[in-house]
Amino acid sequence: MQKTQRLQQLLWTMMKLTYYQLVLSVVFVGMVSATTIRAQDVLNQTITIRITNQKIKDALVILEKNSDIKFVYSSKMIDADRRVNLNVSKSSLKEVLEKVLVPLQLQYEVSGRQIVLEKAEKPKGTERIDPAPEQQTRSIKGKVTEEDGGVLPGVSVVLKGTQQGTITDTKGNFQLDVPDSDAVLVFSFVGYISQEIALGSQTTVNVKLKIDDKSLEEVVVIGYGTVNRKDLTGSVGQANVKDMQKAAVKSFDDALAGRVAGVNVSSSDGQPGSLPNIVIRGSNSLTQDNSPLYVVDGFPLESNDNNTINPAEIESIDILKDASSTAIYGARGANGVIMITTKKGKAGAPVVSYDGYVGIQRDIKRIPSMSPYEFVKLQLERAPTESNDRYLIDPEMTLEDYRNVEKVDWYEKSLQAAPMQNHSISVRGGNPNSKYSVSTSYFDQKGIFINTGFRRWQGRFTLDQQINNRLSFGINTNYSDTKSYGLVAAQGGGSAGIIYSIWSYRPVFPEPNVNLDVDVLDPAVNPAQDYRINPYIQLTNTHRENFSNSLMSSGYMSYTLAAGLKLRVTGGLNRATYRYDNFYNSNTATGNIASPSYKGINGNQSMTTSTSLSNENTLTWTKKFNKNHNLNVVGGFTQQMGKYERFGATVVMITNEDLGMNALDEGAPTRVDASSSLWRLNSFLGRVNYTFKSRYLLTASMRADGSSKLAPENRWGYFPSAAFAYRLSDEPFMKKIGLVNDAKVRLSYGATGNNRVSDFAYMSSISSSYNDYSFGNATPSAGSRATALGNAALKWETTNQFNAGIDLAILKNRISFTGDIYHKKTKDLLLNAQIPYTSGYTATYKNIGSVSNSGLELTLNTTNIQSEKFTWNSSFNISFNRNKVLALTDNQESMTSVIGSTASGYSVTPIYIAKIGQPIAMLYGLLSDGLYGYDDFNQLTNGNYILKDDVPTNGNARASIKPGDAKFRDLNGDLEVNSADLTIIGNPNPDFIGGFNNNFMYHNFDLNVFFQFSVGNDAFNANRNQFEGGAYTVGNTNYYATYANRWTEENPDGIYPRINGQGTTAGYGSRYVEDASYLRFKTVSLGYNFPTSRLAARKIKSLRLYCTAQNLFTWTRYTGMDPEVSTRNSALTPGFDYSPYPRAKSIVLGLNVSF
């Protein structure tokens, strides 16, 4: 045991030293790198440019601006007024020059950053010593098109073996004089396969060029490597980052929703700085974290704060979904893996880019509350005497007078038109041996609630250094500083929620000496019964600031040991510090003396530090045998450790509130707490990729993980996977079908794990507590208590997954389709199970039960129109997932869940259920059956009503039930509605989700339109339960305007319960379960790209102006503010809507420019 510990300590010490040495080496190598500019470096620059019918001299100016070079020539010598066409993408400058100059019989010479142009010399042997008859020539003409007949301007047509040639015009036509002998013409164009045509006696030659599929290969990032998409054997979704970056959002996950099949992104609310919840292919666990593993530039992060990454700095996002793709990450791959690759430097002259926008945000929807007239009318019904004295003070005043009274609009007082801005600057460049990237950004978003918001400073630096043809180094560092501030509107509900106060606060105050505009509390409300504070004052007085500083840094060394054999060593550091400041003065919810839990002026501060170190060492061997066999083998071992530290203190009864957080030392400390934890993960991994004739593809992988979170006897887990793919399109019989460019079927199966439990969960734990126990004298005492019972048998939560898929591309890749079906089964679920208090503990982690997820994913990409002036591309994805509880612990058939930390009983009465044979989370309550009508009662001689004996009660005493009370179904027929009648009342899991995207380009204008949808998901609208449910709270509370249609004697057809007619508290009625399906017009962006010919003289490479709008419209039948909201977003409690921070719509004006 001691030897093992010493070995681990030695390994971690070596890992740290390796990382620091690597960082220092890379920095110094970058500092001493040679800066001499070689001709080859200049010619290797990558160029993307489109020139149509431009004069040579104008085309050369454009090339100068796109490559930071200078052409030297004589206009007369090169005939600079001749016109040329050019359309290249990511081609070297050398290739571009040959495409342009050779057909014009020009040659060049590189001198530093200057390129000298002159007429091409005649090939040796063409000089004639003696006069001789002129060689006979003939004129060859023709047309060059694509396979479908589309014209190809700018195609190079060259007489083989010479520099004599021309290019096709805008209609694809060409004409060239050639010797009247056996001659061969070479037709070439970037992105197409070159053709050689022997002329023979022909004078007209029409050529169809085929697309070069290799130029269209799309690289996908997978675990510990990359692969061409056409060679994938697993299920990997790829987000269109360019389209995502058109959305004005703070983090990439805000724009990810609806972009990739099988990826469900949902937001709890619209609080600035809040992060959405991402679930891939359904929830695998009941109580543990279902979020995916993030791998940023190869560095795995178990809990990533995506606010620290500037979306503009992301190059690609690949999402690994099936076990074949995720098993290489073993114990952390069960929930899927999101691979994020950031932008790096490129060979070429430095390119300075700026991307910035400014805009405004507004709330999307407001739910109106009662007018002064309806409000006072309700109060007079509820408590006539009290309300008459309060609202009809003047004897001559009547209820009708309130029709003309202006209401206090708490929405207007609390909300604002909120500005937002973003600015990003980057510099990228280098040469083939040394590439660098430096960037910085600033993001500032004010919240639509006053005194709320989020801001971020961020900077990145990357360096990739090729020392020689064997050795290379690299470093990638990202630093961010963020701040979120202001009141948290969504308290999970409860009377402390700001939205609750806006809806419930009185719209009128006719009493003398009462001014609700400035009063902290409403004197008409007893705070012991309903503690609600002035929403405007609460917003302006609450001091809440959360600060974070994050450093993510990684470095690598790559060394080629032999041909095809490469060693890669990486080291990574992720360190984040968080500080939480809260100060509550006398005008806040807890600082006011009228608070039921009065603490005086109080505050708290806590500090948290999270550190993660990673070391990965891999060997990659690539070999090709006999032209048909390709082998790629990866093997390695990794180490990762994480450390968490926290310190916090709370003080009350502060004497001086003017000093704010600086006055914490003046108060009385009530709680000082500190904690720390440490975890380690050691792993071995291997993967084999084999292809035969690019037709048969096989992948097999294995990973072994050992985690300190589990007991020694169950510490190691083993996660194998295998996948097979068959490319039908390479079969001879398929090649005869000209429509099909690629067709491939895939099969995979594998196992992954989930170790998302707390550190050392297998051990018993003791926690310090305050005021927890009284030793018979009614005085609470501080101390320590046992909280969780250890479980040495705790083991991995394992998910086995089968996947079958098809990839299809037709019509020259203009239409591509991907479809996948999958089935996952997760067993040995990790559950923090409650145990009898007689054990001395409250809970213990157990491996219990199992769940399954099955689904279908479809993705379609199309190029609908593609012409010289107009282009239209579309993408569509849709996903279906069905999950099911297969087994629970201790022969349980079901387990119920409450909503914690809320008012109105949600923390007591179950509202969700996980039941064997049903989806993981189902809404649980009573089936509403309308309202009791007069027909349900017998009328007594005194005029009162008594419920008939054969009519079920609603949970209240039979004698107290009145017409207009809420009515529920008696499922067991005992004529009493109670907990025995609870049943499933809704399904918050969607039937299907997805999105569709359209990109249009007309001349220099571009338009992006994106829609997101979710269909079949229910939500429990707890706001309606509160504000339409029967006015059962204390008086002088406002309600939704819709509650005016409640049951009254004058309105017996009202659809809402009468005052105090809500019925039983045994469960919640299905009347508040709504269809939360929606179609959201998520993003629209219109841009104008200035022609490069106009920018060249100003040394500008590109310039785009744009206007982007976000969350413009949502089509839904849901009556709440937002159908996507989920105040308590977890696997067991989705779709719960109670007092959330409203989502905002925004419109911004922006600029993209590069020099």
Automatic annotation (TrEMBL):
Keywords linked to the UniProt accession: Cell outer membrane, Membrane, Transmembrane, Transmembrane beta strand, Transport
Membrane-topology annotation of the record: Multi-pass membrane protein
Keyword presence, Transferase: no
GO CC term (a single one): cell outer membrane
Main localization, broad class: membrane
Keyword Secreted attached: no
Domain Secretin/TonB short N-terminal: 69-120
Record Pfam families: CarbopepD_reg_2 (PF13715), Plug (PF07715), STN (PF07660)
InterPro entries the record matches: Beta-barrel_TonB_sf (IPR036942), CarboxyPept-like_regulatory (IPR008969), Plug_dom (IPR012910), Plug_dom_sf (IPR037066), Secretin/TonB_short_N (IPR011662), TonB-dep_OMP_SusC/RagA (IPR023996), TonB-dep_OMP_SusC/RagA_CS (IPR023997), TonB-dep_rcpt-like (IPR039426)
Compartmental location: Cell outer membrane
Family stated for the protein in its record: Belongs to the TonB-dependent receptor family.
Protein name, per record: TonB-linked SusC/RagA family outer membrane protein
